[in-house]
Amino acid sequence: MNRREFSQGLTLLALSPALPSIAQPPLPPRVNATRLRKRLEDLSVFGRPAGGTFADGVSRVGFSDADIQGRTWLQSEIHSIGLEPKIDAAGNISALRPGTIPGKKPILFGSHIDSVRGGGNFDGDVGSMSSIEVMATLMEKGVKTRHPLEYVVWAAEESNYGSGLHGSRMAAGLIESDEFDRVQGGVSKREAIKRIGGDASRIAEARRAPGSFHAYLELHIEQGGKLDRARIPIGVVEGIVTIDDYDVHVRGFANHAGTTPMAERRDALVAASQIVLAVNSIAKGESGAQVGTVGQMSIKPNAPNVVPGDVELTVEFRDLDGAKVARLGVAFKERCAEIATATNTDIDVVFTSRHEGARATPTIQAAIEKAAAGLELKAMRLPSGAGHDAQAIATLGPMGMIFVPSVDGISHSPRELSRWNEIAQGADVLMSTILELDTRDSLG
Length: 444
Ligand SMILES: [Zn+2]
Hints:
The protein is of the alpha+beta class. It folds into two domains: 33-241 and 357-438, 3-Layer(aba) Sandwich (Aminopeptidase); 248-355, Alpha-Beta Plaits, CATH 3.30.70.360. It is 34% helix and 21% strand. The strands form four sheets. Strands 1, 2, 3, 4, 7, 8, 15, 16 and 17 form a nine-stranded mixed sheet that branches. The protein has a four-stranded antiparallel sheet with strand order 11-13-9-14, with helices on one face. Strands 5-6 form a two-stranded antiparallel sheet. Helix 4 (125-140) links the parallel strand 3 and strand 4. Helix 4 packs across helix 12 (420-438), helix 8 runs antiparallel to helix 9 and helix 10 packs across helix 12 (420-438). The chain is globular, with a radius of gyration of 26 Å. Zinc ion (ZN) binds at residues 112, 123-124, 157, 220, 388. Zinc ion (ZN) binds next to loops.
């Protein structure tokens, strides 16, 4: 067959009505990326520095006036897509779209819209605005789901009144003793909750029962640089790390820096410096993604001509595996005992707190990967080194998180940045994952 005959053959094939067509799976729906970007820009004005632009970031601290304005705007956005916003006793905002099969538990998805002081326009906002966009797209396209869909924006996720994850912790019943009596800027947390439409005296009503939802999904920016460095648009979160905190007190002896011979010194900073290096080498000492950090140190007397006599420092270890985090702590304490002997100092190590992490449900991780593959997007599994509402909600039922890249891994800063196209891709993956999980009767 010459070239001409070959191409004529192809034409005949294409025209022949008798040939069976190859069934293509339906294309997954896509969100409206322009509308998603507009909502992120519209939200960014609440808490923007006076005279600033989008690039100047935001201070929308939970319970503040800016937070309240943003929440009011959010409720009108929920109305505008045809749903009814609801505020629970903790101040969480939610909206429910019924499913087609009675008795099915809702698929819950959302994030938060409060920020740290001097934060950016992506942490929390990306997940919250993508989730409402997913809801709007499904309604607009008439895509029905068997399970009800519930959009949720958790109140005051960032650290506030001494602890973070306010709304999601209340939903999970993880209330700290006396937390409503804590005072910040002259306002008790009890009053602050009232300001956002909640009621601490009825906080039990904000509680969600274990097993009361089919799945919880949260889209979030990575806040680290792994996806951006690897040029991979979708992160499948394996879980949120467990954090163990320690306070360390090193006692030596403060003495004259000119007259005390080296052999006679009891230099607390020399000991503390060895502790810093020990934390680093312990964290690097085995394979895995565990991290160890000395983030704070105070030196006494902190004078140029005095051998430091007293140093206090903080140590933390993080990993997905809580048992590994504990094991790193044991190794650390052993090293401290050796350092104390070698430097002739006394070293007290006090374990101060454990922040329990959470594993993402394996079937949800697989569903996110399938959703990304269906959209022809590369995905990579990774742990979350930062805390999220998802870790509190994971105590109640199946949980999964999707990450989109943070440019240069920057977050909690006005320079926090995610690319618009990658945000829309994350929202598409969220939507496909919801539709995928909707086909399952159980995620066990
Ligand atoms: Zn966040």
